[in-house]
Design a protein that fits this description.
- It is a single chain.
- 46% of the residues lie in helices and 21% in strands.
- The protein has 99 residues and is of the alpha+beta class.
- It has a single domain, classed as Transcriptional coactivator/pterin dehydratase (Gyrase A, domain 2).
- The mean pLDDT is 95.
Amino acid sequence: MERLTDEQIEQELRKLPDWRLVDEKWIRRRYKFKDYLNGVEFVRQVAEYSEGKSHHPNIAIDYKVVTLKISSWEMRGLTDLDFEMAHHFDELYKDQVQE
């Protein structure tokens, strides 16, 4: 696993328009839910997937808004795995919102 260059990060972020680069080493997205428990269920799914990958995002639950921040600590920046996970979290969100 290698740390991505600034150019690679920009390229990946173009594929994830709702994610933002933070402090040049994190990507962050806020997800909005119709109620608190939907957000909590989303967090459970994120946690389960993350545990399977042994790669864990920072998670904040603020009533109906869940914020995820991802970075690769060991690489001191962003890697392909961070963006793979962001794509997966977006799919989880899309599936949950459509239910």
